Amino acid sequence: MEDCLFCKIAAGEIPSTKVYEDDHWFAFRDINPSAPVHVLLIPRQHVKNILALTDETNKNFSDFFLVVKKIAEQEGLGDNGFRLVINTGAEAGQTVFHFHAHIIGGKAMGWPPF
Ligand code: 5GP
Ligand code: ZN
After folding, report:
1. Per its UniProt record, what Pfam families does this chain match (predicted)?
2. ipTM score
3. How many angstroms separate the alpha carbon of residue 96 from the centre of ligand 1?
4. 57 in a domain, yes or no?
């Protein structure tokens, strides 16, 4: 197994506040939330980021947006909306190199975010 923080969280070896799980996905609350709702959605399979995806690993991503939708609705974000952020690579601010999508909501947000 990869020596990876998010692999260990998905495996339950490091505690987290679970929000959702199924065969391919695990979602938990960000330890340093940027908004009232800040959930991280990760694949159980270790994929570094979008740039590391292959035809093979992409098979487990086919339901990605439906899982995002399910979590957003479960978190009460269905009426006012939410932001989906996937930092990819160092310049974008990716600090944990296991693919993760930030699902952020519960307050009005500005754009651009930088
Ligand atoms: P990135 O900057 O890579 O897009 O996002 C990494 C996110 O992971 C950050 O928002 C950070 O707060 C969160 N994070 C880092 N370590 C942990 C941890 O041990 N537990 C949880 N729940 N979140 C973490
Ligand atoms: Zn990993």
Report:
1. HIT (PF01230)
2. 0.99
3. 7
4. yes
